[in-house]
Amino acid sequence: RAFRQRAAPQQNTANHITVTIFLISLLYLVSVFIYSVSQIMDFWESLNGTFLFNEKAEMVAKFTLPLVNAALFPTILILRKQELRERYRGYISAVLHSPVTLFYRISH
Fold first, then answer.
1. If we measure between CA atoms, which residue out of 19, 8, 4 comes closest to residue 81?
2. Is there a contact between 104 and 96 (Cβ–Cβ < 8 Å)?
3. Tell me: the pLDDT tens digits for 76-86?
4. What is the rounded CA–CA span in Å between residue 42 and residue 23?
5. How far apart are the first and last CA of the chain?
6. Read out DSSP for 8-57?
7. Are 51 and 38 in contact (CB under 8 A)?
8. For residue 61, with 0-12 CB atoms within 10 Å meaning exposed, 13-18 middle and 19 or more buried, which class applies?
9. Long-range contacts for 64-73 (Cβ within 8 Å, ≥24 apart)?
10. Are 103 and 96 in contact (CB under 8 A)?
């Protein structure tokens, strides 16, 4: 395995950071790639007058994927860092166990 635990804590930290950067970069590249494909298809349609891309799929690529990227970026950071995970676990738990939530009503 490429990123196994090492004896040196600095190497473990470096490996953890490398994986986090890889995940964030992969998320960004997928979002930008799909958006770019939608732009190329849109340009192609304007040149030829043929419609290769469904309008709904084009709207998802243009507007929803950047929002998904923006939402998942901090999620990756929170899930990868122990202190943030513990802090937000407490926040989420407090919200879910609030009497006004559906989760509370189902569980009680």
1. 19
2. yes
3. 888 888 888 88
4. 29
5. 44
6. SHHHHHHHHHHHHHHHHHHHHHHHHHHHHHHHHHHHHHHHH----S-HHH
7. no
8. buried
9. 65/31, 65/34, 65/35, 66/31, 66/35, 68/31, 69/27, 69/28, 69/31, 72/27, 73/24, 73/27, 73/28
10. yes
- What per-residue confidence (pLDDT) applies to 42? 77
Two structure tokens written together for 84 = 């943030």
pLDDT of residue 26: 92
> What share of the chain in percent tops pLDDT 90?
5
Spatial separation of the C-alpha atoms in residues 31 and 2, rounded to whole Å? 26
* pLDDT tens-digit readout, 44-73: 777 777 666 667 777 777 788 888 888 888
